[in-house]
Specification:
The protein has 402 residues and is of the alpha/beta class. It has 15 helices and 13 strands. Strand 12 and strand 13 (399-401) form a beta hairpin. The chain is globular.
Amino acid sequence: MPLRSSAAARVAVLMLALLGAVPARAAVFIDDAERRVRLPETVTRVMAANQAAAVLVFVLAPDKLIGWARPLTEAQRRLLPARYAQLPTIGRLSGRYPTATTATVARLHPDLVIYCGPPSPAAAALADRIERDTGVPAIVADSAIGRSFAVLRRLGAALGVAARGDTLGLYAEHVLDTIRGTMLIEPPAQRPLVYYGRGFDGLETGPAGAAVMADIDQVGAINVAASLGPGESVRVTPADIRFWNPDFIIAQRRSFYDALLHERRWQGLAAVRNKRVFLAPDAPFGWLDDPLGINRLIGLYWLSSLFYKSMAQPDLPTLTAEFYQTFYNVKLTDRQLDALLTAAEPPPPPSAPPPAAPVAPLTLPPAAGIPGIPGIGALPALPGAPSPPGQMQNPGGTPTVR
């Protein structure tokens, strides 16, 4: 009997060892398009389907990001940590003109592909196609700014960095709660009319509900182009902007910002006269869009500080430095912080020119032949010159008294 018990015990130990050697069943993740995604046991290489997803992975698990969806600018490279600034450009799988394909996914061998954007049927179809063609799981993450806290927490868990996801999610939730509290205090009648000019000429903007207007909507400002939808982007004319006459104008590009300050056609706008023209910061990623990702959280604080100066506002330089350290692991120098915030401020009004020195009256010496000198009289009027009151000019130039 003891021998049998010993043998049974050895068999039990062997079975437990064998069971322990079997890989754990992959977790099932329900993404924001309500798709069931079977995740690998370990995720070490993540491919971003678009730049918003690249930023999302970068802030959560930068060492797992295998590349950027589009090239970084020199300004972005200078501000990001060197090891991440040097990541390759692998192209984007989404958008009107994709620069990567499922063949790119197969060649790069990621453990997971993430798309960040509206959880639309098109986004779900893209993720399904990636999985079908490559066997690599793909997740759709909602890019809505109001969902950022939940997305950070859930994606953090999926990437194996749950604590990091919880920290960033708590930060995002605090930002959104702070802005909502401002909206409860501020009377609706005090909310400003705002135009957001995108592109080099500033004549592209977003109608109501457009993702590019999400920050402006979140802070309770009134989008002057709201009625021009539907869609994500609309073209307007200078006459449209003059008709709306917004209280504030936000420029995405410096070319439009400079035009507002210097071109005559914009000088009658209330925003220009009142020095309420601002250039949206964009390094390393846009504060209002470009990409339409988690990077827009700091833009909520910035817009609130612009629109509601009558209310107590948090210290924007401190909040900016904190956001860059927490999300990007970038410790801004004083010079970098000044450059970010100075770019967002309108120029000071020009100082009044100094008063001109008094000029002494000019005294001419008397000269012969000058009209009015006694003894000479006035010279005949030149042909075509206006006649003195009460006289008509005849073709010969001699005054004729009526």
